[in-house]
Design a protein that fits this description.
This is ParB/RepB/Spo0J family partition protein. InterPro entries: Chromosome_partition/occlusion, ParB/Sulfiredoxin_sf, ParB_N. One of its GO terms (cellular component) is chromosome. 57% of the residues lie in helices and 8% in strands. The chain is globular. The protein folds into three domains: 2-91, Alpha-Beta Complex (Conserved hypothetical protein from pyrococcus furiosus pfu- 392566-001, ParB domain); 100-214, no CATH class; 230-272, no CATH class. Strands 1, 2, 3, 4, 5 and 6 form a six-stranded mixed β-sheet that branches. It is α/β, with parallel strands linked by helices.
Length: 274
């Protein structure tokens, strides 16, 4: 990273662009308290921006300055590569309080960054040792596959396997949102922020639905339901429901999308009797 302008300059915040990674991982703006502080005292800490005016550090301060009608102090920095820019965005958010979801999103991007760097090192090494080989993109990957994962996990403060599971849950959350299942996405997010393993187990049903779609069929109610409760709990509820339906001389498994809110067999029976 090379700083281009050593002197702090003032800029109109409207001329600066937020980094897309900031919205992707953090997605928050200035709160009323920060806006009021900027109105009274201005922005005290300079923003870091690229040569093109893209914000690396200071998104909330910039947002507050816009709302407060204030200019912002900036330092212009040349980060060299897009990977370095993205890592700097994450690094400059290291002091904020983070949910597990945020750490998982940081991990996923940092893992991509580290894997890209490893690939670049491999290509450079191969071209030094084999100058005639110009097609570095097709070289086999030789570094330990888990190295990028381990580095990224350490940077976000998670164990590697936990980080991988959390990142997979985040992918499912995004899939649910894209499908318009916002309530289910929110429920899975809340679960992730409490327990990674619990949330990871609940993602299996989403993957089952996607697999069914690829096979040209609809997922069964059992498959769709599986992601909302644990396997043991599913078996217990399935047995109780089977007995209830048999007693009522009713066939089939009811398609009940509200299972995520169900905590007991009594609630299920109440739903069935509506």
């Amino acid at each position: 990273m090379k700083r281009i302008e050593m002197e702090i300059e003032l800029r109109d915040p409207a001329t600066l662009e937020p980094h897309p990674l900031n919205a992707e991982i953090y997605g928050d703006g200035a709160d009323a308290e920060l806006v009021q502080s900027v109105k009274e005292q201005g922005v005290m800490e300079p923003l870091l921006v690229t040569m093109d005016g893209v914000i690396i550090s200071g998104h909330r301060r910039c947002h507050a300055a816009k709302l407060a009608g204030q200019q912002v102090p900036v330092l212009v920095v040349d980060f060299g590569t897009l990977r370095d820019e993205e890592e700097a965005v994450i690094h400059n958010n290291r002091q904020r309080e983070k949910t597990t979801e945020v750490r998982a999103r940081e991990f996923a991007r940092l893992k991509q960054i580290e894997a890209g760097r490893a690939k670049g090192r491999q290509v450079e090494s191969a071209l030094r040792n084999q100058p005639q080989s110009l097609n570095g993109a097709n070289l086999p990957y030789s570094e330990p596959e888990g190295r990028a994962r381990d580095i990224a996990a350490e940077k976000v403060g998670l164990k590697p396997r936990t980080a991988e599971k959390a990142a997979q849950v985040v992918e499912v959350i995004d899939t649910l949102k894209e499908r318009g299942e916002v309530e289910q996405a929110d429920e899975l997010r809340a679960k992730l922020n409490k327990t990674v393993n619990g949330a990871f187990k609940e993602t299996k049903g989403v993957k089952a639905v996607e697999a069914a779609a690829r096979q040209g069929r609809k997922a069964s109610p059992k498959e769709k339901h599986f992601r909302l409760i644990s396997p043991v709990r599913y078996q217990s509820l399935h047995r109780d429901l089977f007995n209830f339906l048999a007693a009522q001389d009713r066939d089939g498994w009811p398609d009940m999308p509200k299972y995520a809110a169900v905590e007991s067999i009594e609630e299920i029976l109440t739903f069935l009797n509506r």
